[in-house]
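User: I'm curious whether this sequence folds into something compact or stays loose and floppy. Could you predict its structure so I can see for myself?
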Amino acid sequence: MLEVISMNQCYVNGERTMFDPTSLAHLSKEWIFLISFETKSILLLCLGPFLIPLGIIFLIYMSALFLLIYQMIFKLKGSYCSNTLDDVRLILSTMWNKFARFWNGYELHGTENLPDGPALLIYYHGAIPVDYLYFLTRYFILKRRCCYSIADDFLFKFPGVGSLTTMMCIIPSSMEECLNVLKNGHLLGISPGGVREALFSDESYRLIWHKRKGFAQLAVEAKVPIIPMYTQNVREGYRVFGKTTLARWFYELSRLPFLPPYGGFPVKFRTYIGEPIPYDPNVTAAELAKKTKNALQSLIQKHQRIPGSIYHALKERFH
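Assistant: Here's the prediction. I'll summarize afterward.
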């Protein structure tokens, strides 16, 4: 029985109909909420892969801040490379190691190939070398030794991280300084591909070294072995947006790493350390560079699914 109450309100068996202004207002609020929620979800899905790499930078700055506070509290003085900071190195290494295990299920294989004396560690450069940071921290936990590392000049232009890079024994590229590191019995990590490989390599894991052989000349002069190293699925964890011919041309002109990385997917990371290539006085720098490139490419082909797949890398992580 329909009973008309007014021009804009009616009841059917005591229930309010859709023509009630209160019901319309409530319905409008629900639609606004759903549209707002959907918009925020879409923005999060679009921006999320670009925000996680920023989170890594945030963690690095937090580590630098922790180092500064630790140094002020305990009034530590002297060089950041000295053994007086081994305690804080161990704390930060443990924190990063826990993050590596939690986020990427990080594993390190082949540590028996790392000598106690000097050697040159040649590794594949991912879009964001967070896997190499994982290695540095795990290596310090296992060996209580620092692995020195060569970094691109632009890294040292970041404000506020100078003390952290020095404490982690990250140094600019210099033949003289690299020779000193090796002659003092340390392990030295170098990526011949560097930023170029980080930006323009892809899920095929091709090495972009051009004709670089300075690392091989360094090994010949220092008379040390070369050890190849690569991290499985590093390209599935982080990738680079905007790789075009124009972008490559601009990079070669400016040498600025301007392309934005994205990703941060919690894929499985396994770092593999290959067998050493021993020093041979009869091998030239050019021959040694080619031999090293072949060894690293073989290590990648042995352990990496090519082309890389984010889906399969995630499946490995949560298997």
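Summary: The first strand starts at residue 2 and ends at 4. Confidence is low (pLDDT under 50) at residues 1-12, 37-45.
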